[in-house]
Amino acid sequence: MLNNWLKIAFINYKKNWLSTIINLFGLTVGLTGFMLILMHWNDEESFESWNPKKNEIYSASFFYKKNKDYGSNISYPMAETGLKKIPEIQDYLLLAGTGSDKFVTSQKSFYAENGFAVSKSFFKFFPFKCLAGSYQNIFESKTDIALSSELAQNLFGTQNPIGQKVKMSIGEFLVKAVYEIPKENSQLKPNYVLLGADRFDADKDQWGNFNYGCFFMLKKGADPAVVERKFKTEVIDLRAKLGTEGSAKTSPEEYLDLYGPNELLLTPITEIKLHAKSSWFGNPDFKIILILFSLSVLIVVLSAINFINLKTAQSSQRAKEIGVRKAIGVSKSSLVLQFLLETFIICLFSYLLSLALTELLLPSFNEFFGKEIVMNDWRIYFYSFLMVLAVTLISGIIPAIYLSNFKAIETLKGNFARSKHGIWLRNGILTLQLIISSFFIIGGLIVNSQVKYMMNKDLGFNGKQILFIVFNEYTPKPWLKYEKLKTEVSKIKGVEEVSFGEASPNSGSNSSSNIDFQNKSIDGQHGAMDYNYLQFMGVKLKKGRWLNPNLASDTINTFLVNEAFVKEMGWTDEQALNNQVNPGFDYQNKYKIVGIVKDFNLNGLNHKVNPVVFFHYRETEWKRFNIQNMQVKISANDQEETLNRLKQYWETKVEPGYPFTSYFLDQRFARTFVKYQKQKTLFTILNAMVLMVALLGLFALSSLMIEQKLKEVAIRKTLGASDSNLMLGLTKQFLWMTLIAVLISIPISYYFMNEWLKDFAYRIEMPFFPFVLSLVVLLTLTFTVVSVKAYKATKVNLVNYLKYE
């Protein structure tokens, strides 16, 4: 019986070769997209899964009620108090980046990046494989350091590094351990780890200095929700009480409403890459993965729809076969199984082809996403095969039941071709396919419009020809280094101007604190800067004046603020210029606002412009120590030569042995668009795939349906109908379905694309043209595809279809 079924299946594949190819192609493309996105998702979900303590470690983040926002930093006293007062917490780990440094040994020097200053329990939380030395007593001394195997190899070669001394710009350290960075996915892959003892000592009583990333290790069986509640009462409320001691104006409840944080959120370490509300390693982007996965599933659904449509459209060709088989006693269930087998064979071939195509496309896919995914995860094969089975059932069961329900007496009498069986089913499924196609067209056009808007929007500053140079070498008084370099670098040929600004576009510096006025408090980003920085960046002054080096007060207690600051305070420009505020970093003193500048974007257009206070770096003592860069405007006429002169000067006279680390501000800021340009590219590719699958299915279906009407065409032509009337009669049904599909897709597309646009602080208004263009494009394509076959139908040989009438 099985042999007979297979013979019948392959005879029908050969007979309907175009439909077979279209089904194979559509399912192969759909399954390939599904597997690639699934691998991407699984790869993102696999971060930190290597950690044997993963079930006990949670990332700490906070909810701020005032701004309805989340933050991922914690202060040292809050972490320490949490450990002491909440029995469910076994330990905590604090993290701070050290950036990069030059390592000097007795034999050589080497520049290393990506180091971390940590609390003592680092290797308890992240038990990297220890290759030399021991973790047992590490960080008992401030001078202990652990090196990655790669850094140890670069510094010591084959020599045993344990017990060796290394000099860094921040001091001399003793190597106590060498570890292997895990090959598995991890967001934490430091080249070196040292104790942040000096930082912790300075911050031990500073409840408001949120300077650290934090992980908590809970005791086995502890409920994270219980820890979150206790942290609120034992730590957050305690901070509020301490903050209001001696103040009759503010209660602890008001303090929390003004400054926060209000709640602790604990996220399992394996979920922070995709599912955390906020992460010290960067905010997750689960939504885009979910969108891509949903779109890949839609493509598979489109392929299944093609299958259903083509199978039901071919029903008249198999009606007599079914009638004969039913007449000789074949059961309905046997026919259903036979048709499901035929569907499964197509799906299985598509699955095998998609495996090969996925392997072929994987290198390009990895390059696009910056990954190193390989097809060695059994879940990819398992879930994709489940998808094959699902497609087999979805796309096979409907035609199978439909065909098996044919009545033997009708099919053997030959009346089936003139019946209305299946018309509503085919039309309904084809309309669904066109709805999906319309959604993709509208979505692709809106994504393209948003990305184009972002690329062309006025950012409020001019970063062209401005070179951002990083200070790599530690110096005790960095502001004096900057002031000396400003004079010397200005003498280099091709250098037009030199300045410094903390609030620099996409520099990663986002230090902030509360700025208070009477009973109101807002969070203001710090913009310590040189006198000329805002003019240097091309920022426009809206009201008031710039900082003036001839006024002593401009290095003592004056602020410039941006428009966002004034708006957040609820002031007019005139009110702002007549007011004084208390910044959290210098709360005992009042600072006078002397100027308001136009907003300019620091962090990309998916973020709104935050309130920023600009002030001279000498106004606040601790800000002087945070000068870690300088910015140089160079001539456009001599750019390459000027860069070479700057690099040579830097590497020989400023920081010998350190790399010249620099970038142009406009190019660095352009990186904020890369993610959205990739989304645009993906939508374009998916659009092409969807339209290709849909149009091929439409062509095959229209071919079969028009073939069933050839006798009607011959009769009407004999009665004098023109070719244009015949073509219109054959195509109008498909055009009506296209119109209905687009009208249905418009509210669906509007809702989902509006949800996508909500992620952008600066976004387009929902455009009208994508919806109209979707209708025009689909109607044009539908008419083009169907009219090709309709035109051929008008050229039928009348004798062949009327000779028996």
UniProtKB/TrEMBL annotation:
Membrane topology: Multi-pass membrane protein
Alphabetized SUPFAM superfamilies for the sequence: Calcium ATPase, transmembrane domain M
Stored Pfam families: FtsX, MacB_PCD
Ranges of residues in domain ABC3 transporter permease C-terminal: 294-405, 686-797
Coiled-coil residue spans: none
Membrane-traversing stretches: 21-41, 288-310, 335-360, 380-403, 424-447, 682-706, 734-753, 768-788
Localization of this protein: Cell membrane
Residue span(s) of domain MacB-like periplasmic core: 20-232, 434-645
Keywords: Cell membrane, Membrane, Transmembrane, Transmembrane helix
Major place of residence: membrane
Domain of life according to the entry: Bacteria
Name the UniProt record assigns to this protein: ABC transporter permease
Organism for this UniProt entry: Cloacibacterium rupense
